[in-house]
Design goal:
Layout (H helix, E strand, L loop, with lengths): L2 E4 L2 E4 L1 E4 L8 H28 L6 H30 L3 E3 H34 L4 H4 L2 H24 L11 E2 L6 H4 L8 H34 L4 H9 L2 H20 L3 H26 L1 H23 L1
Parallel strand pairs: 3-5
Antiparallel strand pairs: 1-2, 3-4
Helix pairs in contact: 1-2, 1-10, 2-3, 2-5, 2-10, 3-5, 3-7, 3-9, 5-7, 9-10
InterPro entries: GPCR_Rhodpsn (IPR000276), GPCR_Rhodpsn_7TM (IPR017452), Olfact_rcpt (IPR000725), OR51/52/56-like (IPR050402)
Membrane topology: Multi-pass membrane protein
GO molecular function: G protein-coupled receptor activity; olfactory receptor activity
């Protein structure tokens, strides 16, 4: 194996991604991933087009949904094609620079997803707890600024963590026991001091795996208290119904991650459960929002009715 070396820093020419090496029926799993990828791209693209083309959806909540769909497409493209490439082309080697790029984009879009869910939780909190001040607090300008800050901050932090990988010397092994260039897995390979990288890893976990669910839980505690103050069950149900889509999306995103942390499975089981925890939410999110959002369903129904009307007219003639 050729090594590029700068003084005492050793960088491998390639990393070897194990994927599901030696796992029975792994072919079917890769086909399943391709189906997930196809549905994710089509579904999120439809959501983006619907929100972009219809002015009635140019509101704070749908700006958040639009941003989530963008992050879902980015994450799906960063993760699943590289896994499918391993199966179709039997190519488990990835160059050092491509590995860092893969790490950056997967981590970046995951972090964007987490804080988009936080912003959507805040949107629901203000809508239910402070309904009279909603338009003054949460408006399109506010959401645009918030998401600009999120994208800028995430770019800075993920760029920092990825660039710090270049100071590590990989002289022990170039085998990555994961389904992509996982930051945590790569941190176990260097033979020089990686304390700074470990600190950044803990910082990222605190920012993106601990803080977001904590803030979301706090938001829903406030929402629950506000619901208890509503006198009628009909009013409570109506207010809670506006949160169903967000709660389902939050559950599909964080529950699989929690299960992985608790179960601590074997390598292959970790790869399957880990890849599903990242691949499934982008597929489920557009389905959840389309099925549970009356505005989007009404728009789709109108489009279908408009297209079927000429066909029905021609048949009647």
């Amino acid at each position: 194996m050729f090594l590029s070396q700068n003084i005492s820093i050793v960088h491998p020419e390639h990393f070897f991604i194990t994927g599901l090496t030696g796992t029975p029926y792994s072919t079917y799993y890769y086909i399943f991933l391709f189906i997930i990828y196809f549905i994710s791209i089509i579904g999120n693209s439809i959501v983006i087009l619907i929100i972009a083309l219809h002015r009635s959806l140019h509101s704070p909540m749908y700006i958040g949904v639009f941003n989530l769909a963008l992050a879902d497409i980015g994450e799906s493209n960063a993760l699943i094609p590289s896994m499918i490439k391993i199966f179709f082309f039997d190519s488990q080697y990835i160059s050092y620079n491509d590995c860092l790029a893969n790490m950056f984009f997967v981590n970046f879009f995951i972090t964007v997803q987490t804080y988009t869910l936080v912003v959507l939780a805040f949107d629901r909190f203000v809508a239910i707890c402070l309904p009279l001040r909603y338009n003054a607090i949460v408006n399109n300008k506010f959401m645009a600024i918030v998401f600009l800050v999120i994208w800028a901050f995430n770019t800075f932090l993920v760029t920092l963590s990825t660039s710090l990988m270049t100071r590590l010397s990989f002289c022990k092994s170039n085998v990555v026991e994961s389904w992509y260039c996982d930051y945590g897995t790569l941190l176990r390979l260097p033979c020089n001091d990686n304390s700074i990288n470990k600190f950044i890893a803990v910082l990222i976990q605190a920012f993106f795996l601990v803080a977001p669910p904590f803030i979301i839980v706090l938001s829903y505690v406030g929402i629950f208290i506000a619901l208890c103050k509503i006198t009628t069950w009909e009013g409570r149900f109506k207010a809670l119904k506006t949160c169903v889509s967000h709660l389902l999306v939050v559950g599909s995103f964080f529950l699989p991650i929690l299960c992985i942390l608790i179960a601590a499975p074997t390598t292959n089981a970790r790869i399957i459960s880990g890849s599903l925890s990242i691949a499934l939410p982008p597929m489920l999110n557009p389905i959840i929002y389309v099925l549970n959002t009356s505005k989007i369903k009404d728009l789709i129904r109108k489009v279908l009715n408009n297209r079927s009307a000429p066909i029905t007219g021609n048949v009647s003639k």
